Amino acid sequence: xxxxxxxxxxxxxxxxxxxxxxxxxxxxxxxxxxxxxxxxxxxxxxxxxxxxxxxxxxxxxxxxxxxxxxxxxxxxxxxxxxxxxxxxxxxxxxxxxxxxxxxxxxxxxxxxxxxxxxxxxxxxxxxxxxxxxxxxxxxxxxxxxxxxxxxxxxxxxxxxxxxxxxxxxxxxxxxxxxxxxxxxxxxxxxxxxxxxxxxxxxxxxxxxxxxxxxxxxxxxxxxxxxxxxxxxxxxxxxxxxxxxxxxxxxxxxxxxxxxxxxxxxxxxxxxxxxxxxxxxxxxxxxxxxxxxxxxxxxxxxxxxxxxxxxxxxxxxxxxxxxxxxxxxxxxxxxxxxxxxxxxxxxxxxxxxxxxxxxxxxxxxxxxxxxxxxxxxxxxx
Length: 380
Prior knowledge:
Distance between the termini: 31 Å
Shape: elongated
Oligomer: single chain
Structural class: alpha+beta
Order of helices and strands: HHEEEEEEEHEEEEEHHHHHEEHH
Number of strands: 14
């Protein structure tokens, strides 16, 4: 639970609030000065299939179109169904089209047999759209008001040589449209980049509405990552701790092989078995701090009243409350006024194990601040 508390503290910290404010400001500037609705056109191929499909060569069977044998000419009839979609965020008006290069399409590798049939997404397009057959490969469309999200579905009958796949090629120039892509319906209709999909919207307010959703999703994703990490790390840590504890047990068997263990020895060894060298170092630092406290009391205790002395000791040499209480309970430390008297055999056992573990005096005196210290003035 501590990690979740720290995570929440990070979220509500001044730094995080400042970051949110900066991001909001960036969105505001972007929406006001830089955001623009980009026009876009897309040709979406719905199907490209043979009108007929004969797998066996049947001598008396033939396919006739407009009085001509298609099989004799080794050709195929194909039907290409596709949509012309206003996939952008703006509406096209008639003046957006170049009269010299009208919107249309070309069939590469086949011939258009007749004016294609079409179905539009609204009545205006259905009633006003006209197609002009420029050649057997090219068709142009008259300028129209083409609203965002609307489409024209076209069904083109194509004559192609056997083994040749006709290719649909968009034609024409429309204001603001640099390139008209052709996509397959079996693929995603949205071929924009991931970042393009994230930032694209009709209005800056869409981004504002998205922000809380994305924030909640990001927080949920972060919590999921933490949970997954915990599920993997906890067993690994448990195994590592168990392995290290076995190694410490083996080490203490070697240590105690040639000495007669006292109660104090067993107490110090137990601390090592549970917490390793860090636990012993923590104990030695606490004992060293007690020695400094006692020395200070001996020097100035007679000239300073008890209340002031307690304040000096709390600030200069604060003690680890839980550790001191534990040592008092086990009988290794006793309180005598402002002094803490240390049982000699416990002091000997602690120093002896420190020597065996090669814990230097420099490490012991490295810091006077203990882990998990209580800084309450009343604690002495």
